[in-house]
Amino acid sequence: MGTRPDQNGPRPLISTRALVIILTAIGAAALTVAAPWIAIPIGVGVGVVTLLTQIVKD
């Protein structure tokens, strides 16, 4: 039994999932600064997306 091909090279510094989360957080923060009156809907949206991500992951 050999090693799996994905374990031969170096691991990436940051995963795609982590990059998406970071970019989403930066975008939400920028939008909140630009339009503070929509901060609560952004928070609810992020919560829903996080919940859906966990459901799909499980």
Model description:
The protein is an all-alpha fold. The protein has one domain (15-57). Helices cover 66% and strands 0% of the residues. It has 2 helices and no strands. It has helices at 16-34, 39-57. Keywords: Membrane, Transmembrane, Transmembrane helix.
The biggest sheet, with number of strands, parallel, antiparallel or mixed sense and barrel status, is: none
Give the strand content: under 5%
| Class from secondary-structure proportions | mainly alpha
> What is the C-alpha radius of gyration, as a whole number of Å?
17 Å
Order of helices and strands: HH
Helical proportion, percent range? 55-70%
Mean pLDDT: 78
- Taken from the alpha-carbon principal axes, the silhouette is flat
Number of helices: 2
Q: Tally the beta strands.
A: 0
Q: Provide the low-confidence segments as ranges.
A: none
Instruction: Supply the number of structural domains.
Output: 1
Straight-line N-to-C gap: 29 Å
Transmembrane segments: 12-31, 37-56
Keywords: Membrane, Transmembrane, Transmembrane helix
Protein name: Secreted protein
